[in-house]
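User: For my dataset I need records formatted as: sequence, then structure tokens, nothing else. Please produce one.
Assistant:
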Amino acid sequence: MTHRFTCRVYYEDTDLAGLVYYANYLKFIERARSEWVRELGIDQRRMKADEGTVFAVRRIEADYLSPARFDDLLTVTTQIEAATPARLTLWQEVTRDGAVLFTARVTLVAIGGNGRPTRLPVALQHFIG
């Protein structure tokens, strides 16, 4: 399963050198993950209200390979790399015209209303097998 999310680089995303500020790549991949979950039919607000469950990033490994610039059209690709009932590891890439600019391996966990780790929501487990 591969999800693609497109976003444009705005002036506010860049630094003094005119390049995308490094932390903004994390925002781009977060938006892509949110849209991926939404397209799976999972309503995160409802999940929190009904079950008290939210997703949290436990670990992220990121590589900055080449800069993006103002007005670039970027594609963020998200793929499941590994999954257990309690943990999901995703591989995400940010590309421009097919060239890889940024990669990240993101480990997500579910956190219950008590602030402790819990099993991933059943709706998501259905999609990850």
